[in-house]
Design goal:
196 residues, alpha+beta, seven-stranded antiparallel β-sheet, three-stranded antiparallel β-sheet, disordered N terminus
């Protein structure tokens, strides 16, 4: 009888694990910073709809919270939520210690510098695609990849000025161009052909 019960329980457990992995991939942990300097934590979808008037997150208590985009400074996709016991994490929960690149980044993309509506400055790397023009905001890789913040989404309403600092190309493309230039260069001593 024990063997029979475990046989029926195993498929139920396996399906619940599969469902939880699906749920984990649909929503990611975020810290939402408002222009008023207030912030909240929760889980947000991996992509935002352009036509949505509000950001929708699921807070830690399971309640759906809606925040108007005109209030949002940025949405930080984070590794972990701030601990309530640390005073420093209550002031800077995103743990963005550096908001500017110290050296030129090596990852391909557009190096952007922006001034936000509250006067704060931020740099980041964005992908060089149509989302820069068509999107409702910009998804950036922050200067410090080892910080708690993995990605930053900045809505267009929060951006006061935007400057493209540099276009950083893929390293493979540069090598291909060098190989093409080397192939075009004539040889000093062309190989001799046998006239025999």
């Amino acid at each position: 009888m024990h063997r029979c019960c475990s046989f029926f329980l195993f498929p139920i457990l396996r399906s619940s694990v599969r469902q939880s992995k699906t749920m984990a991939s649909q929503r990611k942990p975020v810290i939402v910073r408002k222009l008023s300097r207030e912030w909240c934590t929760g889980y947000a979808a991996t992509s935002f709809g352009q036509d949505d008037a509000q950001l929708e997150i699921l807070d830690l208590t399971g309640k759906v919270v809606r925040i108007g985009w005109e209030q949002v400074k940025w949405v930080c996709y984070v590794r972990e939520f701030p601990a309530a016991s640390h005073a420093n994490e209550q002031v800077n929960p995103e743990r963005l210690l550096r908001k500017r690149f110290v050296i030129r980044p090596r990852t391909p993309g557009l190096w952007l510098r922006m001034t936000l509506a509250d006067g704060d400055e931020l740099e980041g790397l964005a992908t060089n695609d149509r989302s820069l023009i068509d999107g409702a905001g910009l998804l950036l890789t922050p200067p410090d990849k080892r910080s708690n913040t993995q990605r930053i989404y900045v809505p267009r309403q929060a951006i006061q000025t935007l400057e493209v600092v540099s276009l950083i190309g893929a390293p493979g493309r540069k090598r291909a161009e060098e190989a093409r230039e080397a192939a075009e260069q004539p040889e000093l001593f062309p190989p001799e052909t046998d006239a025999a």
